[in-house]
Amino acid sequence: MNTISIPAPDFHFQSIIKLKAKNLIQSYLKIHTIAYDYSYDSEKIHEVIIDNLYQFPNQKQLTFFINELIIHVFKIREEFDRQKSMYDISDNYRLEQQLIEHSRQVDNFNLLLFFLYNKLSENGINVDGDVFSSEETSNIQDAFYSINQTLEILKMGHHALGDEIQDVKNILERLENILTLGKENFFQKATGIAVSLATEKSFEFIWENIKPNFIKLLSEYLPVGAQKLLESKI
């Protein structure tokens, strides 16, 4: 019997899924298109997304893909929102029309997000009523930035811990990427990560340096009971 030697992939599957999600969203939600094209076809992008969902062989990859789509829609919606600062305020009528159209296009973004969140629900992840607000998301992202800055400083002064510090950075990046999957999912993962870092000997020094910011990140949103349980473990 002839045997076939199949080389192992030298890349991460998640990096390919991220790229597919980014390319899909950028193909159909270019800022100048969604902002000014009155024939924007929501049904078309829904069909394309559904066609892409069939490409993934398991729920883990499927969920990751939908989550990446949601992340990119949020980013483009935020970019679109910043365009309000460029509207012509010297002409009240024109400004009013621009704001009406702006509101209509924001509705398009939200309808697409609604569609994507429903796809998550169909795959067993229900985030209805459990989504971070834009202000909460921004605050949490700022906290992640502060933690990463601390890790970068540690890396410069403790070269021997370079691999461990990079491991922690990768863990936190994956955690930040699931913000769109709802508060319950996020805090379950975040609490598990905190306990793991606090109890793993190789991460002890790193954890002590990022612990204040990490605990602050969780304590602002975790219920009191969950905070006490977490504090008892770390």
Question: What are the key terms here?
Answer:
single chain, 234 residues, mainly alpha, 2 domains, 10 helices
Task: Give a structural overview.
The protein is an all-alpha fold and 234 residues long. The protein folds into two domains: 13-122; 134-233. The protein is 73% helix and 0% strand. Helix 6 runs antiparallel to helix 9, helix 7 (162-176) packs antiparallel against helix 8 (183-199) and helix 8 packs antiparallel against helix 9 (204-219). The N and C termini lie far apart (56 Å).
Structure summarized in a few sentences:
This protein is an all-alpha fold and 234 residues long. The chain contains 10 helices and no strands.
What is the makeup of the main sheet? none
Which percent bin holds the helix content? over 70%
Helix tally equals 10
Radius of gyration of CA atoms, rounded to a whole number: 21 Å
Task: Kindly report how far apart the N and C termini lie.
Answer: 56 Å
Strand content: under 5%
Classify the secondary structure makeup into a structural class.
Answer: mainly alpha
DSSP strand tally: 0
The backbone outline, from C-alpha atoms, is globular
Q: Would you tell me the overall average pLDDT?
A: 78
